[in-house]
Design brief:
With 409 residues, the chain is α+β, with helices and mostly antiparallel strands. It folds into two domains: 285 residues, no CATH class; 79 residues, no CATH class. The protein is built from eleven helices and 19 strands. Strands 1-3-2-6 form a four-stranded mixed beta sheet, covered by helices on one side. A hairpin with a 2-residue loop joins strand 10 and strand 11. The chain is globular, with a radius of gyration of 23 Å.
Length: 409
């Protein structure tokens, strides 16, 4: 058996690499201080208020300075955000409105959108985040992990990986307003010539959701030889996309059929303590609280080898090591978290139901003829020009720089 090609060569095992199909990618955010994100917005406001009321050494300790950010750091505003740009040491104003983000796979949380508090905010992502954008998120690769290789979201993703090395974030569009697809130049015409005129940027994204898989060479996206296989994969990918959008853009929120929907059978206590699962009864226990029916597929759903429901619960229960502003958390379990849990169970159950179809597609692609990177080279798509791997210039976008100065980008 031939060894897999090196990353960036354009050819992985039985298909081109995602890095060549969607060439512009961004590394995950690095907040530098965990207290700027939280599962609820109210505690972020409480943390801000406590910080700006503190003084001297106490304020410095709560801020948690790093090499990248101190209270004296001069930084620009986040693109598209009205945040202040004066030194944080002089900050005494109200809390900026928290924004919804995706904190790792399938975990919707909140972030304080203040560039002075975030070590590496990836402004290029904020610059293209709007109601037309879709972000493809790579999950950290773990050998022999059966979980999804990638997921998609309309929220700004921080790219956090629960285990393994974090993957990259790939916006579908290089410019705001759904302009200039982040696809290799010439890829759409090449795919239309093979699969028909219905190929669009979103159908390519759908195919990637259905077919992408990790490999030592990078994330591989096998391409089929025939249009019928492509259409089947795109249909599957669109269903994955619809579920993962979770009601955004007018889509229906994930919902299991009647009789299978999870309900709260016993109220979640103020401090649930532990999470456990009874596979025979299909019951999720949160302390004395009970949620059922919970399909086994939802409980066993893993990303990068980590069970999603357990990780989601851990992030919402105060650990003994929490200190400083991170210790400012809800005193009791909020009702909103229970609602979010019910939706997450439904989402994971529905995704698990689609997994056999993804495995069937993978087997068919492995067994049948494909259109690999050689075909894309022959069409002039590969190698990808270096300019396509860099963010697009935004010449008409004015942003506030440090201490209120403006720059034209």
């Amino acid at each position: 058996m031939a060894a897999p090609a090196a990353a960036g060569s354009g050819e992985g095992p039985r298909g081109p690499l995602l890095d060549d199909l969607m060439p512009w990618s961004v590394r995950p955010l690095r907040t530098g201080r965990p207290w700027v994100t939280a599962p609820d917005a109210a505690c972020l406001r409480a943390r801000w208020d406590r910080l700006v009321r503190a003084a001297g050494e106490e304020r410095e300790r709560l801020f948690a300075p790093t090499r990248a950010r101190t209270q004296q750091s001069a930084v620009a505003a986040l693109p598209g955000r009205p945040g202040a740009t004066g030194r944080f040491a002089r900050e005494s104003g109200p809390c900026p409105e928290p924004v919804r983000i995706l904190h790792g796979p399938f975990d919707e949380q909140w972030l304080l959108p203040d560039h002075r508090l975030i070590d590496v905010a990836r402004p290029e992502l904020w610059r293209v985040a709007d109601d037309r954008q879709l972000f493809l998120v790579e999950h950290g690769r773990v050998p022999n992990d059966p979980g999804p290789a990638v997921s998609v979201t309309t929220l700004l993703p921080d790219g956090h990986s629960p285990a393994g090395r974090p993957g990259r974030v790939r916006p579908l569009y290089r410019r705001p307003g759904g302009l200039e697809p982040n696809l290799a130049p010439g890829l759409l015409p090449a795919l239309r010539a093979r699969y028909g005129d219905a190929v669009t940027a979103e159908s390519v994204l759908a195919w990637i959701l259905a077919a992408a898989r990790p490999s030592p060479a990078g994330y591989v996206v096998p391409l089929p030889a025939d249009a019928a296989r492509w259409a089947d994969g795109v249909e599957l990918g669109r269903e994955l996309l619809r579920l993962q959008l979770r009601g955004a853009r007018g889509a229906e929120r994930p919902r299991l059929p009647g009789g299978q929907r999870p309900y709260v059978r016993a109220a979640v206590p103020p401090d649930p303590g532990q999470l456990s699962y009874d596979a025979d009864e299909r019951v999720l226990h949160l302390g004395s609280g009970r949620v059922s029916p919970v399909p086994t597929g939802a409980w066993e759903f893993r990303v990068s080898g980590v069970r999603v429901l357990e990780l989601w619960f851990e992030r919402r229960t105060a650990g003994p090591g929490a200190a400083g502003l991170e210790a400012v958390r809800p005193r009791t379990w909020p009702q909103e978290w229970t609602s979010e849990l019910l939706e997450l169970v439904s989402l994971l159950a529905l995704l698990a139901e689609l997994r056999p179809r993804q495995e069937e597609l993978a087997d068919a692609l492995a067994a049948g003829p494909g259109a690999g990177a050689d075909a894309l080279r022959a069409a002039g798509v590969l190698p990808v020009p270096e300019a396509a791997r860099r963010p697009a210039s935004v010449l008409d976008h004015r942003e506030e720089g440090p201490d209120g100065q403006f720059a034209l980008l």
